Structure formats: structure tokens, C-alpha cells
Amino acid sequence: MRVTLKDIADEAGVSVMTVSNVINGNRGRVSESTIERVQEIVARRGYVPSASARSLAANASRMIGLLVPAADEDSLMVSPHNAAMFGLLERRLRKAGYHLLLRGVARPSEVLEAVKSWNLDGVILLGFVDADVDSFTAVGETPILALDSYSPNVVTTGVRSNDFEGGRLAAEHLISLGHRRIVFAGPAFAASGVVQQRHAGFVAAQEKAGLRWDASRDVVADTSYAAGVELGRGLVRGHPDATAVFATADILAAGLLEGLRASGASVPGDVSVVGFDDIDLSSYVTPKLTTIAQDVVAKSDEAVRLVLDEIEGSRPTEPVVLPVHLVPRESTGPAQRSR
Description:
The protein has helices at residues 5-12, 16-23, 32-45, 51-58, 80-95, 109-118, 130-135, 163-176, 193-208, 225-238, 250-263, 281-284, 296-311, and strands spanning 63-69, 99-105, 122-126, 144-147, 159-161, 182-186, 218-220, 244-247, 272-277, 290-294, 320-322, 324-327. By secondary structure, it is of the alpha/beta class. The strands form 3 sheets. The protein has a 6-stranded mixed sheet with strand order 7-6-8-9-10-12, sandwiched between helices. Strands 2-1-3-4 form a 4-stranded parallel sheet, sandwiched between helices.
């Protein structure tokens, strides 16, 4: 049976309030002998304080919600990048004395429901399109921070990587290797500022090099391994002159490697491939993936810092934009003139 404060108080011969004060460090009016007696009983009986009781007493849950999009009838699907973010956020918040609640959200209104139902001290949004982020309104004093968002919504000011720079670096790398017929592969970017910016940087680098971008080389593909395999299998048929592909996520690029292999094309001999994220997978695939690295550790640290600062009353006014860099590996090489 769970040991309660009353159990400890009865054995120690003191009031429940005295036991509570000892456990919570409010010991100014408690004698040393009573403190020692209560602490001995707590340790011997294995008393564990109730988180919910402490939350009620402090009017704070010490819980931060990590909310991600999820359709009503679908399981919660988390990309490798988002899974890495979840792990980093949880560890960082745990060290700060907070708990992280992962929850899928089908409708924007569920953000308000989550805050009220769980008495959340703060909310971090991950993976929402900018149109949804635009619609979020303040929930009392609860901080709402959006990761990887380009929404101008001041309620959700958050943290993102320099996606334009990442697209530019990917294009410059491939151009330096002699590639001129490059495919851009990623989700439809009408609603995604992240993909828009990666595409804009990619095109800007080509224009700077005197190359005119051909929109027929924009290929829409979901951010998934399966979508990458499908794209790789059909790339030579759909784009017979392509010598390189820039995929907007490593998981998509990894599938692309497999699809190209299955189609008989070699990487990088026939087609070079660049990804984005630098998740662990990029070093596990064969060939190892050239990619644009974003600093997910710094992103999680900044997100937690901003949320905790806002809980203390300091609201950010500008998003934090983190640098990216190219990580060249085995999946890129000189363009073959025969292609």
C-alpha cells in the first residue's frame, strides 16, 4: 500500500503539516530531533511524494507538453528527427525538474484542451504547418513555443534552423562537383516555411552560379523512407538526365539510396544524393550520406530555455535561428559527363 503523509505523521507523533514541512524543506520551526525522526521514517518506509498533490499545492504541474500533429484515427507517427528532439527535450527538462508529456493533436483546439486537462506549465509545438501555428492563441499565461516554424504569430515565437542556408550549402556542394541537372525532393511546400526556405536557398545558389532553375525538377515526396524508395526506383525513368538529388530530410534520402540501388543506379557513380538533418541514420546507410547538419541539441536547449524563461515572465520577441553546416560523406561525387 502507498505510504501517506498521515502514516508518517502517526508514527512520528507529529502533525501532517510538520511532516509536509520537513519533506518540502520548510524546517524553520521544526526541531532537529523531529526532522531526523521524520527523515528516518520516510527513508525506512519508502515514502514517495505525490506529484499531483505537490502540483495542486504549488498551482503548477511541472509538466511541459510536446504536441505533434496526429489525425483522429491514426497512430502517432514520429520522424527520426522528431524522435531525437523528443529525447533531447525530455532529458533537458528532467534536469530542470520538469516532466515532458507527448501528445498527438488532431485539431488546433486540442492545444487549449491539453493545457487545461493536464494543467501544463508550457507547450512546445513540433511538426505543425505554419497555417496551424498562425491560428494558435494565448492560453492564459501558458507559454506556447513552436519549433521549426516560420509563422509570424507572436504567441508562438520559437526556435528553428537556418533552412535557407542549408539549401544554399547543398546546392553549392553539388555545383562544385560539376552537377548541373539536380532534382529537389521534398514535401509540397505551400504550407511549410521550412521546405520553402530550403528550396529558396537551393535555387538562389544555382542562380548565383549562372544556372536557371527548371521547376520540372521539383519532385513532391513525403518525408518518409518509403517515399524515398519509390522516388529512387523511378528517378532515372522520370528524370533521365539528373545527376544529383537534394532531399529535404535524411529519412527521405536514405530511402532514395535504396530505391536507386534497386533500379540499378549507383550512388554516387550515377547519381549523387544530399540529405538534411544529420540524424544517426545518415552514418549507418551505405554509402554514408552527405547531409546538411542542424544542431538538434542546441535547438532543444534553446527551446527549453525559452519556455522556462517565459514561465518566469520573460517572453521572447524574436525567433532563435541556429546555424547549419555541410557534412560531406560518400553519397556525393563528381558528375559523370555521360549522364
